[in-house]
Amino acid sequence: MSVSSDATICALDVGDKRIGMAQANVVSLFPQPCAVIVHDDTVIERLKELLSTHKAIALVVGLPRSLQSDDTAQTESVRNFVARVRSSVPAVPLYFQDEAGTTKQAEEELRQRKQSASNDPRSSKDALAASYILEDFIQEGKHHELLD
């Protein structure tokens, strides 16, 4: 498969109120926060727009689990959200990625930078957590099948 050099892999940190989004260009593979989406009735349409804008070839979704790696109510909520996305955006492959610790990591980074949440996705813990989810996906080599 030939992939355009401006294509990206996108990732989501799905929450009940907000969804953080990150993207990495397929050439540089450097994850960066890019958006925060309000999790309301317009979330699927907004996500479709962003995936198109970022020329996404895949979507990685953080999967929350308990400390014992068991499913939780939030795990089920994310799986239900992904089912909605799959039916609305069938052309974009979806992958789950363990999101353990990504929100705490984002909070710590923002604390060290002395930043709090704002309208800038780079200072949003949700979008920053999504960038860590995407970084884990890339570091585990899961992106190779997309680029071969």
Count of β-strands: 5
Q: Report strand order across the widest sheet.
A: 3-2-1-4-5
The CATH class is identified as Alpha Beta
What is the CATH-assigned architecture? 2-Layer Sandwich
**Count, helices:** 5
How would you state the average pLDDT, rounded? 86
| Number of domain units | 1
Strand-and-helix sequence, N→C? EEEHEHEHHH
Kindly name the structural category.
alpha/beta
Major β-sheet annotation: 5 strands, mixed
Which regions have little confidence, pLDDT < 50, spanning 5+ residues?
A: none
Question: How would you summarize the topology of this molecule?
Answer:
Elements: E1 8-14, E2 18-25, E3 32-38, H1 43-53, E4 56-63, H2 73-88, E5 94-98, H3 102-113, H4 125-139, H5 144-147
What does this structure look like?
This protein is an alpha/beta fold. It has a single domain (8-147), classed as 2-Layer Sandwich (Nucleotidyltransferase, domain 5). It is 39% helix and 24% strand. It contains five helices and five strands; from the N terminus they run βββαβαβααα. It has helices at residues 43-53, 73-88, 102-113, 125-139, 144-147; strands spanning 8-14, 18-25, 32-38, 56-63, 94-98. A five-stranded mixed β-sheet has the order 3-2-1-4-5, sandwiched between helices. α3 crosses α4. The longest helix has 16 residues, at 73-88. The N and C termini lie close together (6 Å). The mean pLDDT is 86.
